[in-house]
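lol ok so funny story. i was supposed to be doing the assay writeup but got distracted and ended up predicting the structure for this chain instead. priorities right. anyway since i did it might as well share w the group, maybe its usefull for someone
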Amino acid sequence: MTLAERLAEYVRACFTGLWIQSHEHDEAISELGQLCRRERWQLASWDIDRGLQVTGLANSAVASDGGGDPLAAIRALNSLASSEGFALLLLVNFHRFLNSAEVVQALAHQVSQGKQNRTFVVILSPIVQIPTELEKLFVVIEDDLPSRKQLAEIARGVATETGELPEQSVEAVLDSAAGLTRYEAENAFALSLVRHRRIEPAVVFEQKSQMLKKNGLLTLYQGQETFGDLGGLESLKAFCLRSLRQSQQRSALTRPRGVLLLSPPGCCKSAFAKSLGNETGRPTLVLDVGGLLGSLVGQSEQNVRQALRIADAMAPCILFCDEIEKALSGINGQADSGVSSRLFGTLLTYLNDHTTDVYFIGTSNDISRLPLEFARAERFDGVLMIDLPGLKEREIIWRMYQQKFGLSLDQQRPKDIDWTGAEIRSCCRLAALLDVSLIDAAANVVPVAITAGESVEKLRNWAAGRCLSADRPGVYSRGTNGAPKPGRRVSRGDPSNN
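and the output, tada:
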């Protein structure tokens, strides 16, 4: 349903206070103007620059007031009231004036009287900041980002010459442009034409990355990692690939939701999430919930909703939230006036109800800091435990990083029981950096099984029997690879490799 169609419904139902959230004001104003001409409704618009402008049914200006008084604009709506039809007052970027008690009171009075006068107040703003006095009087309408069909029309409108939009690259271009506004998409397409004389998906993708970085809500990850860069995790890889296969052709009821990954630090949770996007050809969006916290009341929740809305528009995609228990610290609502609890509620609702092809990957090092309802069935397709790598997995990881850092495969390795992949990489990197053997480099590596042994044991004990295993099919159970007791010292200079 288009914005104009939704507006028409609310107007006919006599919702006299309407708040349109949109970043594309020109497009929204154009749709509203066409609707009023079609329905023969009177329309007036006001902004701080041009003042009040009243347009006739033929879309020609019949009255104009260059004044910048918001109170005068609100009161002028009474003069537009007519027994023959509806009258709409469009207030552009009016959220800037709602810190005034006089303006809020005038709006409340006008919206309340609108049912008798057949007048409607429409506020157009990129954000929703409704004062408490007006919350029950306004309904919020979100102007959706352009669909793939609309993006295709924009691309063909920009690429007017033969060969500027090759048919074989149309789908890739639309994938790259998904999540952009009409204005942003048009600019990205035009830039690509200037650079390459045709619309290239890579240029559009680059511009999208810049725009996401600018709003600070999401980050578009652009690394080149693949599953070949990860040792082990065979069950997790197969589970996710099978879930995502042909997900776009499935109904909303059977689309994959995502996974929650638990493990001690350094076990490649983040690397897996980032490599999955490259393996499946999906963009990976990084959601930093902590970075979405705003200083104004309600701003944090609004930021999260906007970020999730962008993710929906960019589907199919991977939405990755790292160390989610830290981002939602203060969930009891005592430390931050309940902000974390409200963010958590917004995220829970999204995970449970969203029907778009967004695959959510959350990671956690401490499941005890998350409420039980977060990991319940139907939030995720599975909760998987990534244990410290066993002997077979460590062998794969050693060979991979020895080759990556140009180290001989024949040299002795240090004792590596319960080393993580990050610690093996660190040892190889230090050996290359310091030009020493792996044995000597290991003297600078303290395993997390030693530094946080109690936490590691607690997580492994909790996951046993409760989670799926990331390394082998079935439910996770404690391994038998000789894990050291918490706090027990391990000799890092021992040349044996058990």
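The mean pLDDT is 83. The first strand starts at residue 17 and ends at 21.
back to the writeup now i swear
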